[in-house]
Amino acid sequence: EVKNKKIAWIKMSKFSEDLFTKWNETVTQIKKEKNILGDNYGGIILDLRNNPGGYLQASVVVASDFVKEGVIVKQESKNGISEVYSVEKNRGNLLEDKLVVLVNDGSASASEILAGALKDYNRAKLVGVKTFGKGTVQQPEEYIDGSGLHLTIAKWLLPSGKNIHKEGILPDFEVKEASDSSEIDLQLEKAKEVILEK
Asked: Which pTM does this prediction carry?
C-alpha cells in the first residue's frame, strides 16, 4: 500500500508449467480487487528479478494480458526461418493497468523476452539493472557414452528485432541493490514511485 493506493506486486521466480494456471488465477484476483478498490488501485509491479526463464509460451501468455496485439518474440535460425510468437487472442485482461517490471542480472531467457517485449511496446517501465543476456535456443544432444552437448540452433529476437544475447536489456531506471544489509528493497521502492508518477 502506497499513498492510500494499493499495488499488486507479482513475483515470478520462473516460468514453469504450473504458471499457466497460476497466472489465470492471479489475473482473476487482480480484476476482482480493482473493482473493489476503484481509484485506490495503483497498478501492477511484475517482479522478474532472478527469474531464469523456463517455458517460452508462459511468457507469451503473460505478455498477452498486457499487450493488445503484435509479435512478442521471433525465433531466427541460421537459415533465416523464423518462428513468430504473437499475442494470444482473447486475453488482454490488463491492458489499461499501470505496469512496472523489476529486472536484474539474474533475469534471463524467457523473462528477458517478456520484459523486452513490454518495453518495446512502451507498455511498461523497467526498473533495476541490466538483464543477463540469454538470447539463444539450445538443443540438447545425448550420446551413448553418457556425454551430452548443447547445440545453439537459433536466437530470440524482440519485437524491435533486437537480439538480447550477451546484450541484455537495459532498464528505464537503473537502481542497484542496496550494498549494505539494509532491509530496504531499493528497486521495489523505485518501482512503487514510478507507478504513482505515471
From this structure: 0.91
Q: Which residues are catalytic?
A: 109, 120, 134
60, pLDDT greater than 70:
yes
The CA distance from 190 to 177, in Å, is 11
- Confidence at residue 53, expressed as pLDDT on a 0 to 100 scale: 93
Q: Give the cell for residue 129.
A: 539493472
What mean pLDDT comes out for the span 23-40?
Answer: 96
Residue 2 pLDDT > 80, yes or no? Answer: no
Mean pLDDT of 67-82: 90
**Contact residues for 83 (Cβ-Cβ < 8 A; gap 6+):** 74, 75
Phi, psi of 65 (to 5 degrees): -85, -15
**For residue 4, is pLDDT > 90?**
no
Rg over alpha carbons for the chain, rounded to the nearest Å, is 18
1 contact partners, CB below 8 Å, separation of at least 6: 7
Quick one: three-class SS letters along 84-146? EEECCCCCCCCCCCCEEEEECCCCCCHHHHHHHHHHHCCCCEEEECCCCCCCEEEEEEECCCC
Q: What is the identity of the amino acid at 188?
A: L
51-61 b/e (C-beta count within 10 Å ≥ 16 → b): bbbbebebbbb
